[in-house]
Amino acid sequence: MAVPEEPGVATVVAARDGDQRALDDLVSGYLPLVYNIVGHALGGHADTDDVVQETMLRAVHGLPGLRDPAGFRSWLVVIAMNQIRLRHRERHRVPVTGPVPQDVADPGADFVDLTIMRLQLSGQRREVVAATRWLSEDERELLSLWWLEAAGRLTRTEVADALELTPQHTAVRVQRVKAQLDAARIVVRTLERTPRCPELADVVAEWDGEPSPLWRKRIARHSRECVRCERCGYDLASVEGLLARLPLVPLPAALVFDPSTLVVSPVTASPVTGGKIGLFLKGTLAKSLAAAAATVLVTGVVVAVLPSGEEPVARAIPAVTQSMSTPPPTTVPPSSVSSSVPPSTTTATKPAPPAVPVTASVKKGVSTWNFDGVGKALTDVRAGWYYNWAAQPDGIATPPNVEFVPMIWGTKFTDDATLARAKANGKVLLGFNEPDFPEQANMTPEQALDLWPKLAATGLRLGSPAVAHSGDKAGGWLDRFMTGAAQRGLRVDFIAVHWYGSDFSDAAVGHLKNYLDAVHARYGKPVWLTEYALIDFSGGTARFPTQTQLAAFARGSSTMMEGLPYVERYAWFALPAEKPGTGLYAPGGTPNEAGKAYREAG
C-alpha cells in the first residue's frame, strides 16, 4: 500500500470541527508515520500494532481540544512516544515467574526483517537496519525519531519535544546513539564475516544468540582489539546518508485503512474512523475492542453497541461518493488511458466535463540543456520558465512567454563578464549549484559568502545557492550560509533547493511536501525547487522509476506545489530524455508518458 501524503492544517481544522471525510484523511495520512515510529522503537514486538492503534485512538479522542492545528504532527508524535514508554513499563512489570505471555514476541512481525524486506535493502543500508537490534530500548526510542528526522519526515524541534529535551540535549543524545549504532554495525559485520574468527567463537561461547547492548559491547571490543576483525570497522558510510533516502516502511496488510467503517471506543464513545484500525489489528487491544464494539451500517448511520448494557451511540456520517483507498483519476490515471486525455467519469450515465484549455503556469518550469527539439519541447511542455545552469541560453531559442532564468554555477563563473551576461539575460539570478557536493560547485558556506556580494551587485532578484539535500537541517550547508548572510547583512531574496525521492510510490508527493514545508519553516522565505524528480541513488548506481510512476509523480507533485503559496517556482529535472532517466521529451521534441503528464499539470 502506498503511503498517503500527510494532510495539512486545513484538514486538521476540518477534522477537529467534525468533518468526517477530513477525519478519515487525517487518520490514514498519519498512520504510516506512527507505524514507523512505533515499529522502530519497539523493534517489531507483537505489541506494535496495539500501540499504533492506541496512539490513533487517543489522538482522535483528544482532537477537539487541540489548540494549535499547525502542531498536530508534533502532538501526535508525543502521544506515540508516551504510548511506547507506557508499553515498555508494562512489559517490565511482567513477573519473571509463572506462565510466559503468549504474545511477548512475534518473529513474523520483526520490524528489522520487515524493513529490510519491504524496502529491498542491501549493503550498508541493510547493515544499519540490522544493527538496530543491538540497541537498548531507550536508544531505539531515540533512533525511531532521529531516523525520520534524517529522512526529512520530522524536524529537530519535533524530535526534541517528543523526547522532552532541549534541542541541544537532543543533539548530544543523537550523537551518542549514532556512536552506538556504528558500534552495532561493526558487530553485524563481525558476526557475518566468514570464516568466523576463532577468537570470536570463544568470546560468544556463552551468548544465547539474542542481540543486546551487553553483547554489543563485548563483540565490538573484540573487533577493535582483534587483528583479524578490526577491518570490519573500515569504510563505514555516514549513517545520515544511508538513512536520508529511506522511505517509510509500508503498512502491513493488517493496518490497511478502510474509512468505510466507523469504530466507537467503548471507553470514550468517541468516533474513530477506519474499521481495520479498530477491528482488524492483531493483539490484545484489538481483541478487546472487537469484543466491546460491534458496528453496523444502516442508511449512513453507524451504531456502536457498547458493553455492560449501555445505550448504543449513533453517529451520522456523510455518504462516501468515492473510496479513499482508490486515488482520484487526477492523481493516478488508469493505465489504459493516455495521460494527455481526461479520464472518463466513474458514472456511465454522466457525460465527461468539457476539457479545460491548459495554459502555461508561471510557477512550473524545467531544467534543460540544448538538444534536438528543445524549442519545440519548451513550447509544448507549457512551462512558464526554464534554466540551463548558465548565465545565457547558449543557443536555446526561448519561446515567447517563457522566461529564461540565468545562474552563476560556481566559483569560476563569478567574473565580471559572466555576471554582466547574466544581468542582460534575466530578471532573476540563481546562485551556486549544489555547492554541498564535491562533483558540483563544491564550495564551503564561507567561500560562497565571500563571493555573494558580486552576485548581489547585479541588482537582480537573487536566490540562495541550491543545495542538493538537507536544506531544512540545523547546521547544514544552507543553514550555515543563511546564518552567515544574516550576520554579514547580505541579501537573499528566496531559497533554492533540490530534491530527489527514492520512494517511487504515491507517497513521494507527501515526502516532497514535507521537505518544502520544513525548508520554508526554517527560513521564512519564498522557495524555488530548481531540480526535482524521482531517482534512487542509494545502491551505488542510479535507479529510476517506470514511466507510469514518473507520470503519476509529475502530475501529483505539480498539483501540490501549485497550491503552496510559498513555492514561487519549481523545475523538473530534466526536459531532455536522451537516455534512460527522468527526462520528459525525446529527441525531436516528442513527449513521453511523463512528459505528457507534466505538460497537463500545473
TrEMBL record:
Residues 320-356 are annotated as: Disordered. GO terms for biological process: DNA-templated transcription initiation; fungal-type cell wall polysaccharide metabolic process. Residues 26-93 form the RNA polymerase sigma-70 region domain. InterPro entries: ASL1, Asl1_glyco_hydro_catalytic, GH, RNA_pol_sigma-70_dom, RNA_pol_sigma70_r2, RNA_pol_sigma_r2. Coiled coil: none annotated. This is RNA polymerase sigma factor, sigma-70 family. Gene3D superfamilies: 1.10.1740.10, Glycosidases (3.20.20.80). One of its GO terms (molecular function) is DNA-binding transcription factor activity. Residues 382-598 form the Asl1-like glycosyl hydrolase catalytic domain. Residues 333-350 have a biased composition (Low complexity). Pfam families: Glyco_hydro_cc (PF11790), Sigma70_r2 (PF04542).
